[in-house]
Structures are given as C-alpha cells and as structure tokens.
Amino acid sequence: MTAPLLEVTDLRTHFLTRAGVAKAVDGVSFSLAPGEILGLVGESGSGKSVTGFSLIGLVDPPGRIVGGSICFAGRDLVGLPPEEMRALRGRRIAMVFQDPQATLNPVLTIGQQMALALQAHAWVSDRAAAERAAAMLTRVGIPEAASRLSNYPHEFSGGMRQRVAIAMALLNGPELIVADEPTTALDVSIQAQILAEMKALARESGTALIWISHDLATVSSLADRVLVMYAGRIVESGPVGEVLRAPRHPYTRGLLDSLPAMAEPGQRLRQIPGTAPSLLALPPGCPFAPRCPRADAACAAPPPPRVESDGRLFLCHHPLEAAA
C-alpha cells in the first residue's frame, strides 16, 4: 500500500478576535496519496478555504494553527520556520487561487513572472526558464505560448489568466497542488477543459490534488474521494461516487438537493433551511441540528464518528439509510 503523501491529524485553525474565538477549522483529519484527487466541498464559511491556506502556511493574523499536525512527506509543517516553509511552497507544494488577478503581477509580463517562480527555487538560465514556461503554457492549452510570454496579464481573458495561474503552479513539478475554487468564474466549456487537464496531470505525473469547491457537479467529475465540511468540521467523507450517490449525512443530502439539476422543470429549487451558524457561537452538540429535518434531543450532544466498511465516515446521530 502506498504511504500517504499528506496526513492531516486533528487540525485546528482559530481566529482570535475581539468578539471571541472563531473556530474556522475544528479538528479536521484526512490523508492523501500520491496522484490522488481529493474534493473538499461545503457552503461558504464552512472552513474549506482556511483548511487549504493552513496546509501551505498562508493563514494571516488573527488566524493561527492552534493544534494538530500537517505531515507532508514525513515532515510536520506545523511550526516549521518561515524560511523553510517558503522553500517548500511553490516547489513541492503549490496553490492555485480563485482569482488569478490577485495572483498575477500587473506590471510584469507573464514570462517574467514565470521565470521568477522558477528561479526562486533553483538556478535556471533566462533561456531555459522561457522554454519551461512556454512548455507549461502549452500544456494548459494556451496557443502560441512562446509569443504570449511577452504579454501582460490584462492582455489575457479571464479563462486564460486562470490557465496561466495553473501553469505557474505546475512549473516546479510540485508533489501537491491545492486548488481553491479556480474555475468558479469561468464558462462551462473552459471549466471542462481545465478539469480534464488537471485530472490528466494527476494521473500522468503522480501529483496529488486537493480541489476546494462548492460545486458538487465539478467534484463528482474530478475527485476520487470527497470531504464534506460544515462549521469547520468534516461531517462526511468517502469515495466520491458512493457519497454523492447515497449520502449518509443530512447536510450532504441538502447540498445535493440544492443542485438545479435535481429540480423538475417548473419546480422551485430546494434549499437548506436557515443559515450557517456563526463560528463565534456554534450551537452545542451537532452544529447542523438547527437546520436539520431529522434533529431531536439526542443532537444536543456531539455526534460520534461512524466508519463503514467501505471507508465512509460521517458524524450524525440519525444518518440517512444506506443505499440498497
């Protein structure tokens, strides 16, 4: 059995504010094998993006990791000195952000930025850097890549800028890529192309991928396993096909029912009642209980983790029935 590339154990990332402590990530644990694609889904504010930022050491104050471990290739990243974390980030671990305009420097050409990303981790000549950059741009589907290196970010469309951001993440051949909703603002056809490219990358090079999204349809076509987050906790996890075909947690069922494809023509779209709780004042016991149609008095106590024979895990006192 292949050893995990990444093993996260009881990760806790809290934001210490004047109003109190917001537990954005509250006891998250999972593992990831080389070449595996893991989907991380949930509503806005569920903690999925903070989980991604925690993995690469980019949590800004007043947030900080207060507990747990992030073991990458046998090395715990929690508490790693900043200079050692910078040496890993971009070389062995890369991140693709949701907004490429926030990633790309508007006053540098694409070629200059990609060369800097390469030369930050190894001595590479300008010519070799340009060749490597053009090859990566070609790989993500940018035509006439060599001639586009002299262009500035504003000369690319939104979809092309996102491809550039992905190409920059691939430059140093990282072992792990964390992608934070990188296709949210793209049209469907461009999104499908990028998903296919990322899936091929994982299969061909053994790069592990964490895909953070609120879009279950995207995750279903890309990921091998899925983690469903709510209020900073993983409430259900397992093989993506099994979880989405027969969810055990009512929250996962609610996310699926909210998809437009699940509604009949002319019917109102379903939605999960209520709103996500404030991380500063979570209800006792199960945090989903105030919105859950199956909640009762037992839900005032924290739900125990339940593990099934196929690797499914969920936190619920009253799980949905398993599929026949």
UniProtKB/TrEMBL annotation:
<dbReference type="Pfam" id="PF08352">
    <property type="entry name" value="oligo_HPY"/>
</dbReference>
<dbReference type="InterPro" id="IPR013563">
    <property type="entry name" value="Oligopep_ABC_C"/>
</dbReference>
<keyword id="KW-1003">Cell membrane</keyword>
<keyword id="KW-0547">Nucleotide-binding</keyword>
<dbReference type="InterPro" id="IPR003593">
    <property type="entry name" value="AAA+_ATPase"/>
</dbReference>
<dbReference type="InterPro" id="IPR050388">
    <property type="entry name" value="ABC_Ni/Peptide_Import"/>
</dbReference>
<dbReference type="GO" id="GO:0015833">
    <property type="term" value="P:peptide transport"/>
</dbReference>
<feature type="domain" description="ABC transporter">
    <location>
        <begin position="6"/>
        <end position="256"/>
    </location>
</feature>
<keyword id="KW-0472">Membrane</keyword>
<dbReference type="InterPro" id="IPR027417">
    <property type="entry name" value="P-loop_NTPase"/>
</dbReference>
<dbReference type="GO" id="GO:0005524">
    <property type="term" value="F:ATP binding"/>
</dbReference>
<protein>
    <submittedName>
        <fullName>ABC transporter ATP-binding protein</fullName>
    </submittedName>
</protein>
<dbReference type="GO" id="GO:0005886">
    <property type="term" value="C:plasma membrane"/>
</dbReference>
<keyword id="KW-0813">Transport</keyword>
<dbReference type="InterPro" id="IPR017871">
    <property type="entry name" value="ABC_transporter-like_CS"/>
</dbReference>
<dbReference type="GO" id="GO:0016887">
    <property type="term" value="F:ATP hydrolysis activity"/>
</dbReference>
<comment type="similarity">
    <text>Belongs to the ABC transporter superfamily.</text>
</comment>
<dbReference type="GO" id="GO:0055085">
    <property type="term" value="P:transmembrane transport"/>
</dbReference>
<dbReference type="Pfam" id="PF00005">
    <property type="entry name" value="ABC_tran"/>
</dbReference>
<keyword id="KW-0067">ATP-binding</keyword>
<dbReference type="InterPro" id="IPR003439">
    <property type="entry name" value="ABC_transporter-like_ATP-bd"/>
</dbReference>
